[in-house]
Write a structure and sequence with these properties.
With about 375 residues, the protein is an alpha/beta fold. Helices cover about 35% and strands about 25% of the residues. The protein has two domains: about 220 residues, Rossmann fold (3-Layer(aba) Sandwich), CATH 3.40.50; about 60 residues, RecA protein, C-terminal domain (Rec A Protein, domain 2, 2-Layer Sandwich), CATH 3.30.250.10.
């Protein structure tokens, strides 16, 4: 009979005692790693490059950006839709009053599987968040938004209150972070952006909420407009006009403690107005091409794109590949699975390359 290492036995005993005294998942030892699961962002390129495959369940992800960039629609509603597709109950804490049910339905969210909380103050907003997380009934939550929060003290005052909201936000997030992980509840915090007046470099921006709030985030992503914009001719009842229906979006990773990121940012196209050329939402075909190319799942041989799933094993150019993807949507899950599997291998390789190696020192 193999001898049991006494330290391993002691560690297992200590972990069991922690769970007995403090509850499920209060302690673990050895290789008892909890697989919390992920919810896709909606963009395979985004999922791949941040090294996680999506929003990690049981953690907090802050997504911030400028006015009208599409934070709620692109990041929030896409995540809710994908969470529901995995059988989850979703919730929205609507601090801002412009959360509209019709627009949620337009973006593929089933309202029957979603709860909306509409708080009057920041304290009420975090009270709702706490109830959902501690109750363990809502699986995935969109908090929209941190930048719109006002404390009860500020609302009751006839003067502006500086700095009070940051303390309230830090208090609200810290009191639920551990329970969110234990109950495996994922939370996406939408946030606004502010000019970084503390820096001497012009044009830098940051998000409100204070340092403690940022510290509690597992991931922070800045959404910015890319260089490409897409317009179509639309008639407003008087004349045909060029209307911008979509644009390239850059998701820049500002913090990532969930996995070794495979890139500094991800680029994808998103259409906020449906047209004959493009449906509402992500340009799925183009996103699949980008993810497949960046990950190396699609091999390039001159102008040819090579992969066994393609007709004849290859297609000539991105235009042909785009056309094939649109005509064969049932093959997309296979490509996605291969990209995610490649991501797992790449993140492990990257993590090993960044792990310092201790050299043995000869004793005198």
């Amino acid at each position: 009979m193999a001898k049991i290492d006494p330290r391993i036995a002691a560690a297992q005993k200590a972990a069991l005692e922690l769970e007995k005294n403090y509850g499920l998942k209060a302690g673990s030892s050895g290789h008892n790693i909890y697989d919390q699961g992920v919810v896709s962002t909606g963009s395979l390129t985004w999922d791949y490059l941040m090294g996680t495959g999506g929003h990690k369940m049981g953690t907090f992800h802050e997504i911030f950006g400028g006015f009208s960039i599409g934070k709620t629609t692109i990041a929030g509603f896409s995540a809710l839709r994908n969470a529901q597709a995995q059988g989850m109950l979703t919730g929205v804490i609507a601090v801002e009053p412009d959360i509209e049910e019709d627009w949620m339905v337009e973006n593929g969210i089933n309202l029957d599987y979603n709860v909306i909380g509409r708080p009057d103050s920041g304290e009420e907003a975090f009270g709702m968040l706490s109830d959902w997380i501690f109750g363990g009934t809502v699986d995935f939550i969109l908090f929209d938004s941190i930048g719109a929060i006002s404390s009860q003290k500020e609302l009751d005052s006839d003067k502006s209150q500086a700095f009070g909201n940051s303390a309230m936000i830090s208090w609200g997030v810290k009191r639920v972070a551990a329970r969110a992980w234990k109950n495996n509840v994922g939370v996406v915090f939408i946030n606004q952006q502010r000019d970084d007046t503390k820096s001497r470099i012009a044009g830098l921006v940051d998000s409100p909420g204070g340092h403690a709030f940022k510290h509690m985030m597992k991931m922070r992503t800045h959404l910015k407009p890319g260089k490409d914009r897409y317009t179509v001719k639309m008639n407003d009842g008087v004349e045909n006009k060029d209307v911008m229906v979509g644009r390239q979006i850059v998701a820049s990773f500002k913090k990532n403690k969930a996995a070794p990121a495979l890139g500094k940012s991800a680029r994808f196209d998103f259409y906020h107005i449906p047209s004959e050329l493009h449906p509402l939402g992500f340009d799925v075909a183009k996103d699949i091409i980008t993810a497949g190319t960046v990950s190396g799942v699609f091999e390039r041989n001159g102008g040819w794109i090579v992969h066994p799933i393609l007709p004849g094993g290859k297609l000539n150019g991105k235009a042909k590949l785009d056309e094939w993807i649109k005509e064969n949507p049932e093959r997309l899950p296979d490509i996605r699975a291969e990209v995610i599997q490649k991501m797992k291998k790449d993140t492990v390789t990257l993590a090993k390359s960044k792990t310092p190696t201790l050299k043995a020192v000869d004793a005198d």
